[in-house]
Design brief:
Structural class: alpha/beta
Strand order of the largest sheet: 15-17-16-18-19-22-23
Strand content: 15-25%
Radius of gyration: 27 Å
Number of helices: 26
Shape: globular
Largest sheet: 7 strands, mixed
CATH superfamily of one domain: NAD(P)-binding Rossmann-like Domain
CATH topology of one domain: Rossmann fold
Distance between the termini: 61 Å
CATH class of one domain: Alpha Beta
């Protein structure tokens, strides 16, 4: 029997090598760098996925996610008649049903077989195959599974292999995070990790898995057997499965957050146990001391007005040195010993939002007046303080080092913290008007948004900050740089250019899909995702859009109940729908009249259309000191390739010798 294999990553390469020792094998991978060991083992190389299928009877796919599989599916369709496709990639269950249907339409047969095990079991041919599909087809392919599995369990029809995989991975991921947290606690208490490792390895919970991960921690060997980014992807799928089935999943929710943090901090390619680095980063502080900043949202109905600096200043003084607590019925301040000699409280006055206080750790936070949301500028902002000595932090009042102002809050919190740490700068991450927690306004164009940002910079006394913006935020940053260049020191534009450009029709499609969700009265994110899937197939983009959802209560259509909980979008869909034409425009046309003579970095996704090669000369005329960095990604560069994005920005903003 002839075997085809698509995807030669951490798991795919050893699986394919084991196949090659027993069957004629043809392989394909996006990057040719993975081919040498397969060629040496006797495998043939297919120039396309379709060519692999033509030379195979059974085709295995071991690609990163559903989007990667969809990319190769179009090429495969014409070559699947009479073939069997076995998907071992981790994908959502609904995508597996979609894939089975598409393969069947193309004349082929489909089996899902996610695997339990990481790189070492894959190398040893000791994976556990979790099969879902027709029982007869499963039995027919069993002989070709022997080189890669120690057991191949038929879990049921399509979808059941993945359901089993989700349950297995929840257990494995929770074990890894539990071990990492245990080791981190030991180290924080001054216990040598090798001592704890010796204790654990001698106890009843010892296993080959724990031995391996303990060794990796104690030797700081982060070479990947199952990568952090894969665990993040897997934990998202598990959370979706749990929500869809109504199962409580508090552990995996926590694990997902930690793996998200680790991925965004640049550890995505390292072994899953490197999640300990995320735990260590969040618990470290200078000289072993920790300081607490409490962010306490206060509704306007409290009688406090954000436009009254005296009131907000007095409130800040009242709360200084105290801890804040949230009551079910009211917000109250409880007198308590300060966590250290300095406890800074920043009060955000939001529009009638009931939120619990959120606390973030920040060593030696500077004493500044409370920050308020000024309706005049339609901006809500969140500050992040650089972790350094108090004397250095106090330099913020002189503008040194410059602030970073990130437009549109598209850079996630952990990435902001990395920028603050590595560049030794304070950061404001802001929501532009009509987004996130910022106020809504009927006018929505780049001149208005740039004016909002200019007002924010002036109001907060920021001396020539750096602006970082993605997409709409990038055009806003460019508009401000060209209109008021003296306000900022430099800028980073992510995947947008200073040109009029018709927005991708996808944006209008997204708005229609999001309206559909609200009109349907979806009550859960999983329901919203199913609706949005008919408008956007890429699960990554859907998750990004659905990140704007919040839960609220509306009148119920059911006579038995007066109210029901639904999900809605924070952003005003009608306003954005009417503004789509404005968002494609750029307000300046003539680079001879407007020019930004300071440094500018343009980061573009090579698979995106927004910064085409032909517009680069125009960028150079508007921004003569620009530099360009290409990242292999689509439009959502920051979320697709967080480590590469952070590297480019940090290199650009790091002072040159």
């Amino acid at each position: 029997m002839r075997i085809g294999f698509l995807g030669l990553g951490t798991m795919g390469t050893p699986m394919a090598l084991n196949m090659c020792r027993h069957f004629p094998l043809t392989v394909w991978n996006r990057s040719s760098s993975k081919y040498p060991p397969l060629i040496e083992a006797g495998a043939k190389i297919g120039s396309t996925p379709s060519q692999v299928a033509q030379n195979s009877d059974v085709i295995f796919t071991m690609l990163f996610d559903a989007a990667a599989i969809k990319d190769v599916l179009e090429d495969l369709r014409t070559s699947l008649t009479g073939k069997t496709v076995v998907n071992s990639s981790s994908v959502p269950e609904e995508f597996s049903h979609y894939l089975a249907k598409e393969v069947s339409r193309a004349g082929g047969r489909f089996v899902e077989m996610p695997v339990s095990g990481s790189k070492l079991p894959a190398e040893q041919g000791q994976l556990v195959g979790l099969l879902g599909g027709d029982a007869q087809v499963v039995e027919e392919i069993r002989p070709v599974l022997k080189p890669i599995t120690c057991a191949a369990v038929h879990c049921g029809p399509i979808g059941y292999g993945l359901r089993t995989k989700y349950a297995v991975n929840l257990y494995v991921i929770a074990l890894a995070v539990g071990l990492a947290e245990s080791m981190n606690l030991a180290r924080a208490q001054g216990i040598d990790p090798t001592v704890l490792g010796e204790v654990l390895n001698a106890g009843p919970m010892a296993s080959a898995y724990s031995h391996n991960k303990i060794t990796k921690i104690t030797t700081e060997d982060w070479s990947s057997q199952a990568a952090v980014k894969d665990c993040y992807n897997s934990s998202k799928l598990i959370c979706e499965a749990a929500e869809a089935s109504g199962a409580r999943s508090p552990l995996i929710q926590t694990c997902r957050s930690l793996y998200k943090e680790a991925t965004e901090a640049g550890y995505g390619e390292e072994d899953m146990i490197a999640v300990i680095k995320a735990l260590s980063r969040s618990s470290q502080s200078k000289n072993g001391e920790e300081y607490m900043v409490t962010v306490l949202p206060i509704p306007r109905t409290s009688g406090l007005d954000s436009d009254n600096p005296t009131a907000t200043s007095q409130l800040g003084e009242l709360y200084d040195g105290c801890d804040a607590a949230h009551s079910r019925d009211k917000r109250e301040v409880l007198a308590a010993p300060p966590i250290t000699t300095i406890t800074a409280l920043f009060v955000f006055l939001l529009d009638n939002q009931r939120q619990s206080p959120a606390s973030v750790r920040s060593p030696r936070a500077p004493r500044l007046r409370p920050t308020s949301t000024r309706q005049a500028h339609y901006i809500h902002a969140r500050p992040f303080w650089v972790q350094e000595e108090q004397s250095q932090c106090e330099q913020v009042s002189t503008g040194t080092p410059p602030w970073l102002v990130i437009l549109h809050r598209v850079v996630l919190d952990v990435q902001v913290q990395v920028l603050a740490r590595d560049l030794k700068r304070h950061v404001y991450a802001i929501d532009l008007r009509n987004h996130g927690e910022s106020p809504h306004a009927h006018r929505h164009d780049y001149v208005a948004m740039a004016d909002d940002v200019a007002g924010f910079i002036s109001e907060h006394g920021l001396k020539e900050p750096t602006l970082i913006g993605h997409s709409m935020g990038a055009k806003t940053a460019m508009t401000l740089a060209l209109d008021q260049p003296s306000l900022i020191s430099d800028l980073v534009s992510v995947d947008n250019a200073p040109v009029d450009a018709t927005l991708s029709r996808n944006f209008a499609t997204y708005i229609r899909g999001m309206r559909h969700i609200e009109e349907a009265g979806a009550t859960r994110q999983s329901e919203a995702d199913k609706i949005l899937e008919s408008y956007e197939s890429d699960i990554g983009i859907r998750q990004f859009l659905l990140g704007n959802l919040y839960r609220t209560t509306v009148a119920s259509d059911d006579a038995k109940s007066e109210q029901k909980n639904v999900v809605k979008f924070r952003i005003p869909l009608d306003t954005l729908a009417k503004s789509l034409d404005n968002l494609g425009d750029f307000p300046f046309r003539n680079p001879d009249e407007r020019r930004f003579e300071k440094p500018a970095l343009f980061v573009r996704g090579t698979h995106s259309k927004y910064v085409a090669d032909e517009v680069i000369p125009l960028i150079g005329r508007f921004f003569p000191r620009f530099s360009l960095v290409d990242i292999e990604a689509g439009h959502w560069v920051i979320s697709e390739k967080p480590a590469e994005f952070l590297k480019a920005v940090i290199e650009f903003l790091t002072p040159k010798e």
